[in-house]
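Hey, quick one: can you model this chain's 3D structure?
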Amino acid sequence: MGRKKGLPEFEESAPDGFDPENPYKDPVAMVEMREHIVREKWIQIEKAKILREKVKWCYRVEGVNHYQKCRHLVQQYLDSTRGVGWGKDHRPISLHGEFNGG
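Sure thing. Here's the predicted structure for all 102 residues.
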């Protein structure tokens, strides 16, 4: 199975021309910026889901030794979930911790 031809290519960087001081100046750039932010959030959420599945698998495989054997996966998962999700952008850092970029 190869990649299907004709799939859209997405820009991975923020759109040019977006002015955060005056977001309504260029409506097209504002919509592109919103799509960029949503896409980045979905990527972070999916990375956290993958890590969660790895933690579940490690707990099942390691049994009683999961505290020592899965510690690194749990730490990665916790780091990936800090500040990720919808509506957590404007909450104080004391409530959800600081985001390290995962």
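One thing worth noting: The CA atoms of residues 55 and 74 lie 6 Å apart.
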